[in-house]
Amino acid sequence: MVMPIPSLLCSLQILLIITLISQTIAVLVYDKINNSHYICDQSNNKANYTTNSTYHKNLNTLLTTLTSNTDINYGFYNFSFGENNDKVYSIGLCRGDLLPSDCRTCLNGSRENLTTVCPNQREAIFWSENERCMLRYSNRLILGVMEDAPYFFSNNLNDSSDVVLSNEVVTSLLNDLTSRAVKGDSRIKYAAGSLPGPTPEVIYGLVQCTPDLSQTECNSCLSENLQQIPSCCNGKIGGRVVRPSCNMRFETSFLFYQPRASPPRSSPANTTGSNTKPCYC
């Protein structure tokens, strides 16, 4: 598959964010070959699991069966498996425009990549190419917890033909999409759309939260992304900010998502979670 030129340019300027919390380090890595990002949490108080241990077996069971429920057609999976210290929690999120079959394919591919690049880690996150899907797992409760770090951002190397107007349109578009996305339900919190930019440009945008977040939490996460846009992507024709709980992207004259059909009809996902402060420590 040929990568669109804006994505190629965007991939040239990936800025890696190192998050320091409680004197621990979580480093995000960019895989140039697969155009993907991943975090293998190697914090000292999250000891690695050993091969063929109970945790390892629970992790394999959970990840290999994550997408087996074909009744889920809204792109959000959250399951746990095991007990006590060997319990594993997982979240799978697909970009809101993906078909269910494409979503499962993306998550299954991410599973294979994640277990390869993060062997023996008790916590890890993997974002596929163009954030088509995100897969994460942990030995702690992650459902219903808004996590804004670690994060990464990138931009297209090209400047807009009218920086001032472009910045205004991008801000207006992403603000509008945020207000729409936060009103989603426990299945999907996603919005995409476009606005005319400097002639003859069209600016396309997309925002999404993991739908286990409350409206307030989703808005808070996306607002942090929006505040990052001026420093990472000022006057650029494309950019994105990606966090574990939400992501935001815009591109100029490059439709990087597919128009979404009517919302799926299905039982809402379980959104019971925890108010525990997120911490890579």
From TrEMBL:
Signal peptide annotation: 1-26
Polar residues: compositionally biased ranges: 270-281
Ranges where the record places region Disordered: 260-281
UniProt keyword Repeat present: yes
Transmembrane domains' residue ranges: none
UniProt KW keywords: Repeat, Signal
Domain Gnk2-homologous: 40-140, 169-252
InterPro entries attached to this UniProt entry: GNK2, GNK2_sf
Name this protein carries in UniProt: Gnk2-homologous domain-containing protein
Lineage, uppermost ranks: Eukaryota, Viridiplantae, Streptophyta, Embryophyta, Tracheophyta
